[in-house]
Specification:
Jelly Rolls, 2 helices, globular, binds N-(carboxycarbonyl)-S-(naphthalen-2-ylmethyl)-L-cysteine, binds fe (iii) ion, ferrous iron binding
Length: 199
Amino acid sequence: PTAVLRGVQVWQGLLDRPAQEKILQDIRAIVVAAPLFSPMTPYGKPMSVQMTSAGRFGWVSDRSGYRYSETHPNGKVWPAIPSSVLNIWEKVSGSDRVPECCLINLYRDAARMGMHQDRDEAEFREPVVSVSLGDEGLFRVGNLTRGGKTESIWLNSGDVVVMGGDARLVYHGIDKTRAGSSSLLNGGGRINLTLRVVT
Ligand code: MD3
Ligand code: FE
């Protein structure tokens, strides 16, 4: 990694522009089959980030809460995770397993993601791998419990982040994105992919 924040490994510039464009092309096909949606929080307010997934499981949220589901809210199974994305997992995860979910987050305008833990997966010994595409996003890493000091880093298009070991359960979020900082996405915005083992 080129940077480590509280055990979170950041591989800056891992993906060159052609690799980013290939992944984006694959993501576009996924979004046609599994349209983006704004998940409803249990409080009844939609999240500012739009989401969809690929893989055996996708992440959904509705009045009954957050959970992994084998189907999109439209009732269909999720598209497969493309090899362009699986290749990244193989390179950096150090895991013997295959990812079962590729969550796709789209940040447009003032979308952000508040500080949270990822703990809906059954196996915390497996890492989470994240891929940033498009506009820069200000990523914040905290602690194993809510509150306390935090560290931040701007994630650029092509950066890959690995959360494994003790870092797997740290609080983290995206405070904001920098509009116009990348020309990758038509219409601007930031896409983040997270690869996870769920079961
Ligand atoms: C640290 N996504 O989807 S990616 C998420 O950029 C999520 O969309 C953010 O947090 C985004 O849950 C941040 C980096 C990331 C992802 C998962 C983690 C950092 C993590 C899990 C544990 C610790
Ligand atoms: Fe997260």
